[in-house]
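quick q for whoever's on today - can somebody do inverse folding on this one?? i tried earlier but teh output was garbage lol. tokens:
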């Protein structure tokens, strides 16, 4: 399964350019799509599902070009979990999934077998008789994921699959996606950096309709090498003082007080050490660098 995005642009009627000339080849396995609110992730995913026709550019799935009369064939290869999904509130979970399976043309017995398997895998077996409207947000999300997996798609696109899940369920769903990706392609879009760190070896980082980065997690981590520092402080007042002085990313309470993470090309003039870089550090470093560059560009432009 290969997915190719070539020079794709989406401009909405209100002139918002949500996706701006992007190019991407999505390989096998779980591929992360990370980006701030409004970056263009959902718009790009809607293009990939054939729901939205781009204003410009081409998309190919296994060499089949979108919008050339073969979109139905493409759709049969795709499973999609959208950000918001309201599945038949009056139907019990089992009936709802059986109905969706029937709509997808999955043979009845095979469909029941898959439903049993995925209910078990998502920890929902004991909730299968509950009506959809009686489920918690996290449970609804998991049923939504099952509907996307049900036709065992070659290309699975999931938009924020772990939203509303408790930590244990989050891990369970991540593992399910990794297992499912064996021999398939999974596009995993999220704001949760931890989700990407736990599932993907490659990712794209999106901002304002463009990719700031595409490549391996490892290479992104090495970009931030030598730029992240940790300082221990006694309390929040001291942490705030550091925040005024340096570009800080996070602070965390510890047994002794607090630790503050600082981004700096050179060692800050305080007692600090270099921690093991996390994907969150590398992501925040990338975002800060790009924002700094755009601010500089705007300043030069207005001078
Ligand atoms: N149908 C639409 N008409 C006009 N503008 C839209 C439409 N859909 C999205 N947008 C705009 O396009 C931009 C990208 O939105 P999109 O939903 O793709 O971002 P996102 O990265 O998925 O954000 P989030 O992480 O918050 O879901 C935003 O500025 C949004 O307001």
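ok took a stab at it. sequence:
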């Amino acid at each position: 399964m290969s997915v190719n995005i070539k020079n794709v642009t989406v401009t909405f009627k209100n002139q918002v350019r949500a996706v701006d000339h992007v190019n991407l080849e999505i390989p096998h396995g779980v591929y992360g799509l990370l980006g701030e609110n409004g970056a263009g992730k959902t718009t790009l995913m809607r293009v990939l599902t054939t729901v939205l026709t781009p204003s410009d550019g081409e998309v190919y799935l296994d060499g089949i070009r979108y919008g050339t009369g073969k979109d139905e064939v493409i759709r049969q290869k795709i499973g999609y979990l959208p950000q918001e999904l309201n599945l038949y509130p009056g139907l019990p979970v089992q009936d709802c999934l059986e109905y969706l399976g029937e709509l997808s043309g999955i043979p009845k017995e095979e469909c029941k077998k898959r439903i049993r398997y995925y209910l078990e895998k998502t920890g929902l077996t004991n909730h299968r008789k509950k009506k959809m409207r009686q489920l918690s947000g996290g449970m609804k999300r998991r049923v939504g994921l099952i509907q996307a997996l049900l036709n065992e798609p070659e290309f699975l696109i999931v938009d924020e699959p772990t939203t509303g899940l408790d930590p244990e369920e989050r891990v369970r769903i991540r593992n399910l996606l990794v297992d499912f990706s064996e021999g398939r392609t999974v596009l995993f879009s999220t704001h949760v950096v931890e989700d990407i760190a736990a599932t993907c070896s490659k990712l794209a980082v999106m901002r304002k309709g463009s990719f700031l980065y595409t490549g391996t997690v490892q290479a992104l981590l090495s970009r931030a090498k030598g730029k992240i520092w940790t300082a221990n402080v006694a309390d929040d007042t001291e942490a705030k003082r550091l925040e005024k002085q340096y570009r800080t990313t996070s602070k965390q309470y510890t047994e002794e007080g607090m630790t503050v993470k600082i981004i700096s090309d050179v060692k800050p003039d305080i007692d600090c050490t270099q921690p093991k870089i996390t994907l969150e550090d590398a992501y925040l470093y990338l975002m800060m660098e790009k924002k700094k560059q755009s601010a500089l560009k705007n300043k030069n432009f207005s001078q």
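fwiw The CA atoms of residues 61 and 74 lie 7 Å apart. also The longest strand covers residues 17-26. so keep that in mind when u check it
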